[in-house]
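Section 5.1 Outputs to date
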Amino acid sequence: MAKYNKVLVKLSGESLMGGGQHGIEPDALMKYAEEVKSVSLLGVNIGLVIGGGNIFRGLKGVDKGFDRIKGDYMGMMATVINGLAMQSALESLGVKCRLLTAIRMEPVGQGYSKQLVKESFEKGEVVIFAAGTGNPFFTTDTAAALRAVEMEADLLIKGTRVDGIYTADPEKDPDAVKFDEISFDEAYNKGLKIMDLTAFTICRENNLNMLVFDINETGNLKRIILGERIGTFVKN
């Protein structure tokens, strides 16, 4: 039996690169699609937000002379490309799926509305939220927190390269200590970089619990949904 009935999963765009330096690596894409399918088969309503950093990052573009607002919109378009790729991968596995975009761009995807999300979940569809919030100056972390609250998710799940939240970057500091559970206030006071501050505040103020875990460990997502304690749990 699933412990959570409705979840939002946030993936970075970089996760789709696999071992590459940019773009979408087909094997990595299919691996994550298989993870999502395993949860969908449990009857869980799933929302997905995928970043666009594997294609373009707005803030890095600013350093190269791009206008910030145009750069952010380019980043939003990158999330749409990733969303289309994930939609195609899921559908190839027989998973019903719908792509909703914060910026209207039919026939690429339907414009986002909470009613469409509700209808999709009633049909057992996985919903991919693309184009961020539709506004510059907001990250896909913020979009994930916002959509999770709007869809009334039981849990926001953030997939990363490490198995939770540590006192420091475990890839750089061998003495870093992992937290099994931490409060939003404690994480903020310790200056832990879990999500950007806007996303973090949305979760805290709406009492939306978050779980940070290693997305690259096969089966982890399903284990979380079934109630196994993996990664780091963040709550009020």
